[in-house]
Amino acid sequence: MTQRGSALNFRDFVENLLATGDAVDIREPVSPLLEAAAITRRVYETNSPAPLFSNLTGTEAGFRILGAPAGLSGTGGNVHGRLAAHFGLPAGTAPRELLEHLIAAMHAEPVAPRLVETGPCKENVLTGDDVDLERFPVPLLHEHDGGRYLGTYGYHVVRTPDGRWTSWSISRTMLHGRTTLVGPAMAQQHLGMIHAMWRDRGLPTPWAMVLGAPPAALAAAGMPLPAEVNEDGYVGALAGSPVEVVRTELHDLHVPANSEIVLEGWISPDETAPEGPMGEYHGYAFAESKPQPVFHVEAMTFRDDPILPICVAGLPPEENHTIWGTMISAVSLDLLRAGGLPVDLAWCSYEAATCWIVVSIDIRRLARSGMNEKELADAVAEVLFGSHTGWLVPKVLLVADDIDITDIDQVVWAMATRHHPGTGTYCYPQAPGIPMVPYLTPEEVRTGRGGKSVTSCLLPEQFEGVTKGATASFRHSFPERVRSRVEANWTAYGFAERALPPR
Ligand SMILES: Cc1cc2nc3c(=O)[nH]c(=O)nc-3n(C[C@H](O)[C@H](O)[C@H](O)COP(=O)(O)O)c2cc1C
Ligand SMILES: [Mn+2]
């Protein structure tokens, strides 16, 4: 028996989506070369149910792909339903509740994984000459990509040479050969840090990759927890029970027992190959490939009829926004609170492609703090831009807590009406940041610094704890008795019911 439920069992996650209508089982023949990705992109862009491709052309019978595993959903009006299902939470869970859930687990005792003898991921075990990554339906995701990507919704497992720290982290991998993959292992990311420890000893890095992982584990692998924190213990705390893991075939790494697909081998200390280009999280595809480390696969194990999940990166919303952005929001909010700042919430607007994070400020606490705008901006920059999570997001927007920052319309309104273009922008040219941000100069890319800002959308009087202008809207401009009458009579007036509540 393997552990069950959406959070800790990918197969259950898929079954539950199918049962609630938030996934469709596609029996029509679909090619893994561009067609599956095109369908997945259209799903993201129309908030449609996740596509499960059950009849992939040129693929062994039974091998399947799940697209848009954490796409936004139109099903039942629960936009974040598929995201919430990653954590076993109800489909109607609001972003704020989800962040508090993620933060509570950060403060709980880690729950170490439980090693079990075997599990579904060992239903098929191939080693030596039998290893052939081409057996999987490796998809071509965008017309001009430099190759086909096997690992867009899976995570790497590596351990420090002294065994003190195990890292689970998402980073993409492109098919390179029958038994090889190639992909980034950035020095600032934990995969790159641990890879460097082995390389410095002149050794290959023992490595595994998990595809079709328990959804809560996958999300934690896309979460910028601090260095030396084991994601596996965090997942146990988050899910409320230990993740069941099995030993890999060769290197004694531990992987979730019910994973769909497990690849295992080593990362070369010195060999690189061109990787990319690929359509990316910021919404652009650049033309160049880059040299990246080569991953050698010595063993592959998989469940019967395995399901490969994919993310087709590009314009929001896809999983780089819904998963990565949400996990960054949780870590950032926790850090800002720990820094004693008067914050209400932090949220990477999905629409901003994980290139900005909005922070709402409790203006009454702000007034008590006595900080002026520059002091607040500097304090936020100091907390975020010096952190592992803040390295990832170049721009921070500050707004008052009358704004629901999970609603992009309200953020746009605050930006347009409250940000002072002359005095409200604070730049941090020395702050380190991810070099993938499209607007960086070649010099900033080379040094890994700059292009980072804090933009204040706080009105001058909000530093005194007040907002002069009252909001003119349905909610704010009418007494309760008028609003409830209008609401009660809405369909009687001849209008259809609205899916969205008015502001
Ligand atoms: C769908 C998805 C794809 C991602 N792809 C990459 C990637 O290719 N390279 C990368 O460095 N980070 C990527 N990330 C972000 C990292 O997983 C994230 O920053 C995480 O914190 C890294 O783990 P670490 O903090 O243990 O280093 C991706 C995240 C998601 C959700
Ligand atoms: Mn980590």
Automatic annotation (TrEMBL):
The lineage of its organism: Bacteria, Bacillati, Actinomycetota, Actinomycetes, Kitasatosporales. It holds the Pfam family UbiD_N. Homodimer. Binds 1 K(+) per subunit. Its EC number is 4.1.1.93. InterPro entries: FDC-like, UbiD, UbiD-like_C, UbiD-like_N, UbiD_Rift_dom. K(+) binds at residues 168, 220-221, 223, 231. Belongs to the UbiD family. UbiD-like/FDC subfamily. GO terms for molecular function: lyase activity. It comes from the Bacteria. It is an enzyme of class 4 (lyase). Gene3D superfamilies: 1.20.5.4570, UbiD C-terminal domain-like (3.40.1670.10). Residues 321-456 form the 3-octaprenyl-4-hydroxybenzoate carboxy-lyase-like C-terminal domain. The active site is at residue 280. Residues 116-315 form the 3-octaprenyl-4-hydroxybenzoate carboxy-lyase-like Rift-related domain. Its cofactor is K(+); prenylated FMN; Mn(2+). Keywords: Aromatic hydrocarbons catabolism, Decarboxylase, Flavoprotein, FMN, Lyase, Manganese, Metal-binding, Potassium. Prenylated FMN binds at residues 172, 189-190, 231, 388. Residues 15-101 form the 3-octaprenyl-4-hydroxybenzoate carboxy-lyase-like N-terminal domain. Transmembrane segments: none annotated. It catalyses: pyrrole-2-carboxylate + H2O = 1H-pyrrole + hydrogencarbonate; pyrrole-2-carboxylate + H(+) = 1H-pyrrole + CO2. Catalyzes the prenyl-FMN-dependent decarboxylation of pyrrole-2-carboxylate (P2C). Can also catalyze the carboxylation of pyrrole in the presence of elevated concentrations of CO(2) or bicarbonate. It comes from Streptomyces sanglieri. This is Pyrrole-2-carboxylic acid decarboxylase. Mn(2+) binds at residues 190, 231.
